[in-house]
Write a structure and sequence with these properties.
It contains 3 helices and no strands. It is mostly helical and 73 residues long. The chain has a domain of 43 residues.
Length: 73
């Protein structure tokens, strides 16, 4: 199976950029998730409130991705 995307450039430049940079966006989300994970797992100098907030942010990031049909696998 093949799929072809066609864009009328320069009118559709924004849509083209979104399609082409999708893997970069997913990579950035992965890096943010890993940053939050590492802060939660290895940070000894954060307060309980900070850690709770970091966990909430990580959970929200993953929920937003799930709702949009995205995952890290």
């Amino acid at each position: 199976m093949k799929a072809t995307l066609e864009f009328n450039l320069p009118e559709d430049q924004h849509d083209f950029d979104l399609a082409v940079n999708g893997t970069k966006a997913q990579s950035a989300l992965w890096e943010m998730d890993q940053y939050l994970r590492n802060e939660l797992k290895y940070s000894d100098d954060r307060s309980f409130e900070d850690l709770k907030l970091l966990q909430e942010v990580r959970d929200q990031l993953r929920e937003i991705m799930f709702e949009n049909g995205l995952n890290f696998e």
